[in-house]
Amino acid sequence: MITINPPGTQDDVDLEALVNDMASLSSYESIYATCGTQHSDFAPLLHRTDGSGLHGNRVAPLPRAPSNRVTAPHSPTQKLRRSQPMHIQAVRRLQEEELQVRPASLPAIPNPFPELCSPSGSPVLSPGSLPQNQPIIKVFSEDGVGKVVEVPADMMARDVCQFLVYKNHCLDDNCWSLVEHHSLLGLERCLEDHELVVPVQACMSPESKFLFRKNYAKYEFFRNPLNFFPEQMVAWCQETNGSIPQSQLLQNFLNSSSCPEIQGFIYMKETGRKSWKKLYMFLRRSGLYYTTKGMSKEPRHLQLLSDLEESNVFTVTTGRKMHNAPTDYQFCIKPSKGRTEQKELKMLCAEDEQSRTCWMTAFRLLKFGILLYQNYKSPHQRKTAISNFTTPVRSVSENSLVAMDFSGRTGRVIDNPVEAQSAAMEEGHTWRKRGQRMNVLGSPSPLHPSPLSSVIHRTQLWFHGRIMREESHRMIMQQGQVDGLFLLRDSQSNPKAFVLTLCHHQKIKHFQILPFEEEGQVFFSLDDGSTKFTDLIHLVEFYQLNRGILPCKLKHPCTMVAL
């Protein structure tokens, strides 16, 4: 039942006051937005001592309805005046200070690893010294897999190789290189260890890329200079009656005051044509020249073909058919500044591999000079500075593997090669007898070789499975045609045999490894059964110590790393 009270009673509602109260409550939000500019002369609320201010961290309450406030009496004709909210000036000041905070005003962060700081660096990291965005490069391995590396602007090719070696747990034998590869031009070259990577990438096209690869011939000319510089191609610029003495061959290249010279015939591709012209050329510190009259060295007959300071020498990877080259031994001189088009390339072709290697190696020596020798010596100096507590990395070379005799109480080195060969044969007989005893004790049948011995070689870095003969040639050439560079692969003609591919005197040779069955067990041999081995690992280890029928010992395995 609803009861309506008459006007004038206690429960009578003042409609005008109610409407004014609702309008006042709805306008509080707009009042707060404008109070900052209209009431800037008020005292800060945090300093007030009455009940309407802030106490500690408490926020001032919202204004209550006018009925709960004590106001002065007013006439009915005067508009109802409402109290305005107080401007919180202190909070506004704190917000402005937060917006003006700079990184330099933040407290310093102690570096938890002060031993990793540079000698000139501070063990405290300030927010302003945090690393900024670094340039990135993408490095690819032989199998086409790429890895993105963030490098600073002053990072050299040696540092990138060291990073990838440690990251991928590779053998650090100072033979890794960063290769600049141009797929559209069909060119590639190994960056020198001291070259900065970021400027080189800035001159590369989007289709070009970096490769991470072995290069055993990078500094091989310091160890065997006569293999790289034939006497008939090296002469003084000045008129002399004889050639350079062998003892001073490299000193003349490294000494800036001397004037060594490489001379010989080279095929040069004519600009805009597919024809090649055979010219007699001279390589000096000032550049590469060709003569317009026979073999004359007179200045009026010499024409400058390329400057060494503004150019780099590249190997051509596309083959002779693309450029209609007269031989397979092509190389190219490409400008080092800016992106280069096909018409700016100087396409050259040597008569044999030794001549091409001589021209390209002399180009590097005359351009960089003593820097190459410092790069060659830098890893050796770094190894001598390593702490005695660090285990040295074992490198397979001619001097690190020797024949040992452990038949007595103490081991001894076998210096006599005849005794070493007989010891190896005796060890082979011992392994054969051990294999026969294992067969008697319950191992697989002697008519069927052990599964482990037949596949264990596939885990080795020097074994590359079913690759073509041409592919093995390409891999040997890419990793440097030095003596002792080798790989093993499956034979294409005999499914049960294998092939040893070996480089000697810049020539690639192939030797077939045939299986032999004796007393129910399968052995492998390179010399028609005279020297037999139970598996390919024993065969490789033997020929790393002994040359045997091979032209040289096995020294450098041709490997492919996966990033």
UniProtKB/TrEMBL annotation:
A GO term from the CC aspect: cytoplasm
Pfam name, any one: SH2
Domain Ras-associating: 133-217
SUPFAM superfamilies per record: PH domain-like (SSF50729), SH2 domain (SSF55550), Ubiquitin-like (SSF54236)
Tagged with keyword Cytoplasm: yes
Domain PH: 259-368
PROSITE patterns listed in its UniProt record: PH_DOMAIN, RA, SH2
Biased segments, Polar residues type: 68-78
Protein's cellular compartments: Cytoplasm
Phosphoprotein is among the record's keywords: yes
GO MF entries: insulin receptor binding
Name of this protein: Growth factor receptor-bound protein 10-like
Biological process (GO), any one: negative regulation of insulin receptor signaling pathway
Xref: InterPro entries: BPS-dom, GRB/APBB1IP, Grb10_SH2, PH-like_dom_sf, PH_APBB1IP, PH_domain, RA_dom, SH2
